[in-house]
Design brief:
Order of helices and strands: EHEHHEHEEH
Mean pLDDT: 91
Strand order of the largest sheet: 3-2-1-4-5
Strand content: 15-25%
Number of helices: 5
Length: about 140
């Protein structure tokens, strides 16, 4: 069995997330998603809308995902790969080169992101729409 692993926060799930999970799963027989905990997101200065438990529940329901485990820190990747006997490590190509140190343990693949969508863009769009509504009501700055 060929095992694949990927990492992320997977907040505000969107088509880009589904695409990378599908494409990662196509590289093997079993996909492990390592999901950033709320505590680790705080260390990264990231704030997720959904809690770790809610994000884990959502990811677990996706047919491409076989297992979800927690990510506590940056340093655990080698241990995760070795402990889970991973064959392929997958990340979006915005991380290209950052995880090449894992090539000593498994194949490393950087997949292209889905154009035009990201959680950051969704949050920015929602903020802009909220600001526009406030301006329309005369509540703007």
């Amino acid at each position: 069995m060929k095992k694949v692993i990927t990492y992320g926060t997977f907040d505000l799930l969107h088509a880009g997330h589904i695409n990378i999970l599908r494409r990662a799963r196509e590289l093997g027989d079993y996909l492990i998603v390592v999901l950033s905990t709320d505590e680790f997101n705080a260390v990264k200065n990231k704030r997720a809308y959904y809690s770790y438990e809610d994000r884990r529940l959502i990811l677990s329901a996706i047919r491409y995902v076989d297992e979800v485990i927690p990510e506590y820190n940056w340093e655990q990747k080698i241990d995760d790969v070795v402990r889970n006997q991973v064959d392929v490590f997958v990340m979006g190509d915005d991380w290209k080169g950052k995880f090449d140190f894992l090539k000593d343990y498994c194949e490393v693949v950087y997949l292209p992101r889905t154009e035009g969508i990201s959680t950051t863009k969704i949050k920015e769009d929602l903020y802009q729409k909220d600001m526009a509504k406030k301006e329309d009501k005369g509540e703007g700055a």
